[in-house]
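Entry type: protein chain
Record version: 2
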Amino acid sequence: MQRREKQQPTITVARCFLLRDDGLILLVQRSKTDSLPGMWECPGGTLDGQNFITALKREIREETGLRIGIVLEKTFRNVTKIRSGRRRGQKRHVRIVVARAKRGRVRRSEDHDSHAWVTYDQLLTYDLTTETRKAAIALKPLL
């Protein structure tokens, strides 16, 4: 008899390619105490059971202090399994948003050690999380 794995809910992860009026994209550097320390990513986070856009706007505000206006949303169909940590075995479903910064200056949260506004070509030279790099390549025609 074959043993069935307990079905765990899929985790929705949102990442936001945040653009300024001059076309630069915001990257944030993960804290040295976080998983994947020192790597760069677009702001965002895990959204559990919340309205997607409302939760994303709140997450961006908490991480950067910025208000955003949504330009485009894209869902990545390649769902991946989490391999370690307390959510091991759960699947990650990544949703990417391109947004414009409405106003304000970046105020980083404790989750990040630094930030940078970069061009698309500069973005690809950073030590990006796999999730951010895949999204950046997929969204190239739009950025």
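Comment: The first strand starts at residue 11 and ends at 19.
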